């Protein structure tokens, strides 16, 4: 009888530990951080296929997304698919693609972090030399591997509601372990500085 009682108490302790652990995991997953795997080449050279990252889901509850942030969001074409891209235009900005470059508020961006500087192609939404103003609550995003990325140039704007969070930590492979730097979003209005490099995402 004594043995059965101890066994039952052990089982209850074990069950309590499991329940508490699952509750903590659920809170972290829903409100704080979410793991993602990069799928594809759209963010080369800064993110490679099959890398694992953590997405910060808390920051954008405290402040709006910023230029230069690398964000994970639900595809505007299929919400079951998550994309990873870099924010170039925030509400109030004007963006255009002309002569192989992106222009932010009339200033040509010198993007040292992109794969093919000077060879940015326009698309169905951001057409060559056509300036687009970003409306409230929406963002223009592009992949760093500009000529191998499906992004705002093709299908348009991303809403704040579609953004899952900011890519902030890379944990696999081990050689790439560490915080993810942002393009010094001193990509600011009227003053453009060079940027620093750095579920499945496309």
Defining key terms:
202 residues; alpha+beta; Umud Fragment, subunit A; 9-stranded mixed sheet; 31% strand
How would you explain this protein's 3D organization?
- With 202 residues, the protein is of the alpha+beta class.
- The protein has one domain (34-201): Umud Fragment, subunit A.
- The protein is 19% helix and 31% strand.
- It has three helices and 15 strands.
- The strands form three sheets. Strands 1, 2, 3, 4, 9, 10, 11, 12 and 15 form a nine-stranded mixed sheet that branches.
The stretches of 5 or more residues where confidence is low (pLDDT under 50) are: 19-30, 185-199
Q: What distance lies between the first and last C-alpha atoms, to the nearest angstrom?
A: 59 Å
Averaged pLDDT, please?
A: 81
CATH architecture: Ribbon
- Compute the CA-based radius of gyration: 21 Å
Say how many strands there are.
15
CATH class: Mainly Beta
Total domains:
1
Query: Considering DSSP H and I runs of 4 or more, what fraction of the residues is helical?
Result: 10-25%
- Broad shape: elongated
